[in-house]
Amino acid sequence: MRRALDTLYTGAGVLSGIFLVGIAVTIIAQVAGRMVGLTIDSTETAGFCLAASTFLGLAYTLRRGGHIRVTLAIRHAGPQLKRLIEAWCLLVAAGGVAYFLYWSVDLVWFSWKFDELSPGLMAIPFWIPRLSMALGALILLIALVDDLVALWFECEPSYEANAERILPAEDAEASSQ
Fold first, then answer.
1. Are 65 and 165 in contact (CB under 8 A)?
2. Sign of the torsion formed by the C-alpha atoms of 87, 91, 93 and 98
3. pTM of the predicted model, to two decimals?
């Protein structure tokens, strides 16, 4: 199960990176097109790639400890209190993401049901880019619940364990003060 979840998070991170490349490609195509007198409207597709990259990268970034955390309140707390505060934060985050996921799926469903199309030169069905938002929120919710379960079994959450890989130990101490 652990390997499947880690593969899910890594796959979402890879997709996020692919969509970042998609942004670069569309913008480069627009610039190159202007140089040769072609009009290439890439603003819309770059925006869709940006949304996909952002939402698909959320769980991967959480698991790697890359999100900004304010640890001022828990820095000096004892292990039990720190664990309770972490659990509360994960529960609130999971609740917020679940709420967002519900309405994201609702938005995708109605976009598909009413066949909404983007207003740009390429009439892209809106449910396609919006699906990446809902999928990213679902994967983030899974990651939050995954860390909550780890905390329940008194394991270190992934964002804590991986934060030290991002910041060396002396930098991690300085940044938490």
1. yes
2. positive
3. 0.85
Residue 57 burial (CB < 10 Å; 0-12/13-18/19+)? Answer: buried
The Cα–Cα gap between 61 and 163 comes to: 11
Cβ pair 125, 116 in contact under 8 A: yes
C-alpha 87/C-alpha 105 separation (Å) is: 26
Reported as a single tens digit per residue, the pLDDT across 37-55 is 888 777 888 999 999 999 9
Structure tokens at 74: 């828990």
Please report how the helices 2-35 and 127-152 are oriented relative to each other, as an axis angle in degrees rounded to 10.
150
- What is the Cα–Cα distance from 68 to 11, expressed in whole angstroms? 22
CB 44 within 8 A of CB 122: yes
DSSP count for the chain of H helices, then E strands: 7, 0
